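Q: what sequence does this backbone want?
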């Protein structure tokens, strides 16, 4: 008997630290399984893993100047410290989700944690640029296994609609605010220790999460493990790789560049072939029933739009605070905390009290509009205006909006998925978020560079003029983000059925979700 198929020895349930003193007995035939008494501790472990994966997309950003000075690589090479992680993560998420369904979510969770910790340790000890980029790539590989396993564990652990809403509120707040937490943590570690500590800290996080996972997560093999779709795996992974790589190179080389355009067109063709194959495969990697459901498709689009807009905030607001205002790394991280705090309050609070009775569409639409207003506020950033006037209101509005969007969209995006598809369904949510972030990074970089070039055209560069040109770039980015979130609000309003509550959608079969209030 495999390790995944053996359960804990029968006997008393864990003591008071984990729940009640007596474990649940076998469920009656046909009766729903009782909730795991340790589910809230499991949520803490899963949340820590999610936080580690999300913050690693930004924790290194703030340390890049120090890394570049130490390892001596060029400005053109610098972006690959960030995009190597995004490329491997985004292109392998669907495979990672299906592997979680195949080998068991607990096993995938633990392997992903251990691999991520090992890759982080290699990156922290890197003496050359090549070793660092290799380590960041490996981080993305193991994150692609870990992230869908964590989300699918959350999906299967919380079956009660009320508890599921609260759990996804916590999980969504970590997903939405993890980037800001990464900026704060990266700034503090870089300022007071070394850039290497921004990678070594993952070993500590993973150690805690692995210990909790071993103690809390039950060993359980899938009742009917799906077979791996090898052609679909090759088409999806290579298509996503080409898409993310093309977007990553579009920023520095331009959207019309042969390399970027070639990879984008190849990626689109491969993903089109992947969709064609999924209709014909006996064991599809991504069953189309997951993404063709109207509610889930709209939720996935919301996750994608949030990724596009959110990465623009983190990336360019970081540049603005450090380069224009002259903030230190740790002060920059602290400056992001209002947005992070508002995101957590909004995500958790959206599933409690009166808001807990509000349907999914009003939550996501309101979140999109709040985020759009926050971005619009920051289109008036100045070089010397007070932080509490120029930056803080926009951060508060954006944070509140992102919390509402993420908690509701991640819940709707995974509700009602067949348990055998929980891993790949969760991977789809993560993939949309990661690809959205890659699109946002490339799109905003290109828009900012174009705005700066137009502002400086025909003028003699001088320090004061360059500073004004940088502000012009920031204003362009935040204007574009405001437009993207506004379009997301309209899209959600048109496509998502009204009165859609989390309780009524959970467990509903695809295509039969209620649309009434």
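A:
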């Amino acid at each position: 008997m495999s390790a995944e198929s053996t359960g804990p020895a029968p006997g008393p349930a864990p003591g008071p630290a984990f729940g009640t003193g007596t474990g649940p007995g076998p469920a009656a035939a046909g009766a729903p399984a009782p909730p795991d008494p340790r589910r809230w501790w499991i949520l803490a472990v899963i949340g820590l893993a999610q936080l580690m994966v999300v913050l690693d997309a930004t924790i290194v950003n703030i340390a890049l100047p120090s890394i570049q000075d130490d390892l001596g690589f060029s400005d053109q090479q610098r972006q690959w410290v960030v995009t190597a992680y995004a490329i491997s993560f985004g292109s392998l998420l669907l495979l990672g989700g299906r592997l979680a369904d195949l080998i068991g979510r607990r096993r995938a969770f633990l392997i992903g944690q251990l691999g991520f910790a090992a890759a982080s340790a290699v990156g922290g000890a890197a003496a050359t640029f090549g070793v660092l980029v290799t380590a960041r790539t490996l981080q993305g590989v193991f994150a692609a296994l870990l992230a869908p396993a964590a989300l699918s564990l959350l999906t299967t652990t919380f079956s009660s609609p009320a508890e599921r809403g609260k759990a996804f509120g916590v999980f969504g707040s970590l997903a939405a605010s993890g980037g800001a937490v990464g900026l704060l943590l990266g700034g503090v570690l870089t300022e007071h220790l070394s850039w290497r500590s921004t990678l070594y800290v993952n070993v500590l996080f993973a150690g805690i999460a692995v210990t909790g996972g071993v103690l809390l997560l039950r060993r359980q093999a899938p009742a009917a493990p799906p077979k791996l779709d090898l052609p679909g795996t090759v088409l999806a992974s290579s298509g996503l790789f080409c898409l993310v790589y093309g977007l990553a190179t579009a920023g520095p080389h331009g959207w019309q560049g042969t390399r970027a355009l070639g990879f984008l067109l190849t990626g689109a063709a491969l993903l089109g072939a992947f969709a064609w194959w999924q209709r014909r495969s006996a064991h599809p990697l991504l069953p189309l029933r997951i993404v063709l459901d109207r509610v889930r498709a709209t939720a996935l689009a919301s996750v994608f739009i949030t990724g596009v807009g959110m990465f623009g905030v983190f990336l360019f607001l970081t540049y603005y605070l450090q380069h224009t205002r002259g903030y230190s790394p740790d002060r920059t991280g602290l400056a992001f905390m209002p947005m992070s705090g508002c995101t957590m309050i909004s995500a958790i609070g959206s599933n409690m009290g009166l808001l807990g009775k509000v349907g999914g569409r009003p939550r996501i639409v309101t979140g999109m509009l709040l985020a759009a207003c926050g971005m619009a506020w920051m289109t008036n950033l100045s070089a010397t205006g007070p932080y509490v006037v120029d930056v803080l209101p926009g951060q508060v509005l954006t944070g509140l909006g992102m919390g509402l969007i993420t908690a509701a969209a991640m819940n709707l995006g995974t509700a009602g998925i067949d348990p055998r598809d929980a891993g790949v369904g969760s991977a789809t949510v993560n993939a949309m978020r990661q690809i959205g972030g890659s699109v946002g990074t490339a799109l905003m970089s290109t828009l900012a560079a174009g705005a700066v070039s137009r502002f400086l055209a025909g003028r003699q560069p001088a320090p004061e003029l360059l500073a004004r040109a940088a502000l012009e770039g920031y204003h362009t980015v935040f204007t574009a983000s405001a437009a993207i979130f506004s379009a997301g609000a309209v899209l959600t309003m048109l496509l998502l059925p009204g009165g859609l509550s989390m309780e009524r959608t959970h467990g509903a079969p695809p295509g039969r979700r209620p649309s009434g209030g």
